[in-house]
Amino acid sequence: MRDQERAWNRLEMGALVKLLLRFRTAFWREQADTARFGFFHDPRSPFATWWTLSPHRRTRHLVGWSGGPAAEALSQWSERKVLGSALQGLARIFHRPVRSLHEGLEAWHLQDWQREPYTRGGYAVIPTGALDAVAALARPVGRTLFFAGEATHVGGEEGTVHGALDTGRSAAEALLARRGEASPHERPLGGTAGGGALE
After folding, report:
1. Separation between Cα atoms, residue 39 and residue 145, nearest integer Å
2. What's the confidence (pLDDT) of residue 194?
3. How many Cβ atoms are within 10 Å of 182's Cβ, its own excluded?
C-alpha cells in the first residue's frame, strides 16, 4: 500500500468547474453559422469550451468547461458572478445580447470540483517525471485490494471519464478472475451454472 501512497502523492489534482445551462430553445441550432457544430470555443472566456449533448440527445442544454488557473479563479467567485461571466462568453460566441440569454435561461447548475470534500478537484494531473506513478497507483495490493479511476489508466486516458470507466471494468474483471469467476462480458447468455437457460 505504501507504493500506491507514494505514487498518489506524486500526482496533482486538476482544477475543474463545469456549468450546465438549459435554455427555452436550442438557439445554436437555429443559427446557420453554428447549427452543425457540437463544440464551441472562446479562449477569452473563463469557460473556454462549451459543448451540446448532441448527437446523442437533441436537448436545449449547453455544458461549459473550465480547467486549470481559470477554474481556480472561478472557485473564488460567487455562483451568480460565474453565471454572468459565462453568459457574456456565450454572447460573444453566438452574437446574441446577454439579456436575451438571461431571459432564455430556464435552469442552471454549477459544479465546482474544488469544493467537493472527497475530490477537491476534477481530474488527476501527471507532473513532469511522474508518468511511472500512474502504473504504480494502478497495481493491486495482494489479492484483495484493486484500484480504479482515471488516475490509474496506463493507456493514455488518464483525466477522462472513459479512462475511469475502463479502469473500473478492468479492476472488476481482475477481481473476478482472482475469485475464479467469469466476468459479466464472458458469461454465457443461458444464465449461470445450475440455472435454467433463458427462453
Report:
1. 39
2. 37
3. 13
Query: Is the confidence at residue 82, as pLDDT, over 90?
Result: yes
Domain-located, residue 26: yes
Grid cell locating 16: 475543474
Three-state DSSP at 39 gives: strand
> What type of residue sits at position 96?
R
- At 20 the three-state DSSP class reads strand
Q: Which domain holds residue 144?
A: 2-11+123-179
Are 19 and 78 contained in the same domain?
Answer: yes
Residues 85 and 173 in one domain: no
pLDDT, position 179: 82
Alpha helix ranges (H) inside 11-67: 27-30
Are residues 15 and 114 in contact, defined by beta-carbon separation less than 8 angstroms? Answer: yes
Same domain, 51 and 89: yes
Contact 90, 44 (CB under 8 A): no
Model confidence band, residue 199 (pLDDT cutoffs 50, 70, 90): very low
Residue in 19, 15, 23 with CA at minimum distance from that of residue 80? 19
Model's pTM, two decimal places?
0.77
The verdict on residue 193 lying in a domain is no
140 part of a folded domain: yes
Let me know whether 150 and 169 are in one domain: yes
